[in-house]
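Hi U.,

Before I forget, here's the chain from the pilot set. I'm dumping it here mostly so it's searchable later in email.
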Amino acid sequence: MANLDLTLWRWQRYTALAAAPLVVAHVVLQYWVFGLDNATFDAVSARVKGGIILTLDVLLLAAVAGHGFLGLRGMLQDYARSSQAAAWITRVTLFLFVATFAYGLVALIAFL
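Structure:
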């Protein structure tokens, strides 16, 4: 379990490093390149179908959801009173990450 804890701790750092430039790219593209006045379903759908924006959005979704749920796991682990409770916290937060990522992918598929 110690090896898994270290791996997940590292992945929280990796997702933070990935999320920062992805958020900046997303904000720059949304506000300055495409503009907020061009945020209709059809316009967004056309951009997402191009592939590059879809890739950016999927990576952003994975990085932010991963970082958030790994952070939540870390905070909850502080209150775990046994290794069994810590294992359950890990299982539940990883399940929630997968569920959130899948939900986000379904939302993105709506634009395809």
